[in-house]
Design goal:
Layout (H helix, E strand, L loop, with lengths): L4 E6 L2 E6 L3 H21 L8 H20 L5 H8 L7 H16 L5 E4 L12 E7 L10 E8 L2 E9 L7 H25 L8 E5 L2 H8 L11 H12 L3 E5 L8 H4 L4 H12 L2
Parallel strand pairs: 4-7, 7-8
Antiparallel strand pairs: 1-2, 2-3, 4-5, 5-6
Helix pairs in contact: 1-2, 1-4, 2-3, 5-6, 5-7
Length: 279
């Protein structure tokens, strides 16, 4: 195992987290603060004209992206927002990156915990997950951001936050496109687990907070009204009929994937973060 990863075992549970690379993060913190201070005093332009500052901003976002893809799914959405302005970051984006680094410094002890004792949503070694979307959340392109997270034995094992390629005409379409993307991941994970000897006998439960999206997965008559996502409807319904997964309704405040698809209030964010990382 890489020296950057660390497992912690205690009372039948396992926690995976990144070792606190204090020297690297403090260095990034100080450099970013200096850039922000100099930029705010010298210009009111929304963009940074200094190539060195832009290059450093990209390096910081790259480091954050690496961390988000490994053991910190709670920062995926924020890092995705910063990634949109890599070509021309401005002072507001530097402040956002600075704030994210401060958040990581305060929560450097957080990690994903896997435990059979906290596996209340499913049986032992049984896969389940959540999906969500922020309809038209991008103010520039009006595209939606979709997110999903898959769980096994109390902790997240796969997650994704990504802006959708096409514009959804309704919240149901945005949610269903996110569910379709997750269905592909579920099929892959079920096959992978079966190779390890953990055959998924039951359909994988996918929790969704949009009733219309659930109806689209069950009612073939809705295809005419959502023709442009017809292929995704067919794909998802096929997996449901094959017993690979089932879409189940949950409350919006309990949809863990919301942390990957949209900005949330502090209390809700901390609650969903605790569910995702089994804190």
């Amino acid at each position: 195992m890489s020296r950057l990863n660390k497992w912690h075992h205690q009372s039948g549970s396992s926690s995976l987290y990144r070792v606190n690379l204090a020297t690297i993060w403090v260095f990034q913190f100080k450099r970013l603060w200096c850039i922000h201070a100099n930029g705010s005093q010298s210009t009111h332009s929304p963009e940074i004209n200094n190539p060195e500052h832009t290059a450093h901003f990209r390096a910081v976002v790259g480091s954050l992206l690496y961390l988000a893809n490994w053991t910190r799914p709670d920062i995926c959405f924020a890092v995705g927002e910063l990634s949109k302005v890599l070509a021309n970051p401005g002072p507001v984006h530097l402040r956002a990156a600075h704030r994210l680094l401060r958040y990581l410094k305060r929560t450097s002890n957080l990690g994903i915990t896997y435990s059979a004792h906290r596996n209340s949503a499913a049986e032992l070694n049984q896969l389940w997950g959540y999906c969500d979307a922020d309809w038209g959340g991008d103010p520039d392109s009006f595209k939606s951001t979709g997110g999903y997270v898959c769980f096994l034995n109390g902790g997240a094992i796969s997650w994704k936050s990504k802006r959708q390629q096409s514009i959804a005409l309704s919240s149901a379409e945005a949610e269903f496109m996110a569910a379709s993307r997750m269905a592909q991941e579920v099929v892959y994970l079920r096959h992978l687990l079966s190779q390890f000897g953990y055959v998924q006998e039951l359909p994988t439960v996918v929790y969704e907070d949009n009733k219309a999206a659930i109806s689209m997965s069950e009612n073939a008559g809705l295809r005419k009204r959502t023709l442009f996502i017809n292929l995704q409807v067919h794909f998802f319904r096929e997996k449901v009929q094959n017993g690979d997964l089932v879409l189940t309704e949950c409350k919006s405040e309990h949809n863990v994937a919301g942390i990957l698809a949209k900005g949330l209030r502090k209390a809700i964010f901390q609650f969903l973060r605790g569910l995702m990382m089994s804190i």
